[in-house]
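We modelled the chain as a single entity of 55 amino acids. Its sequence is:
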Amino acid sequence: MDSTCLLYRATPECFQYSEALHGDYAASYRQAVQLLIKNDYETIMNRITKENNQL
């Protein structure tokens, strides 16, 4: 699994990865993935890219 998926993609594989983690890091990772799904990953990434291009 590539690092892009692990950091940004809200895919089933990433959920499986997060389930293998332990402790506070695992809880934070799962929360981040859930927020990406809830708030529309593509919209968030487009906004970040647009803001970075304006810097």
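As a brief sanity check on the tokenised model: The CA atoms of residues 48 and 54 lie 10 Å apart. Helices lie at 3-8, 12-20, 23-38, 41-53.
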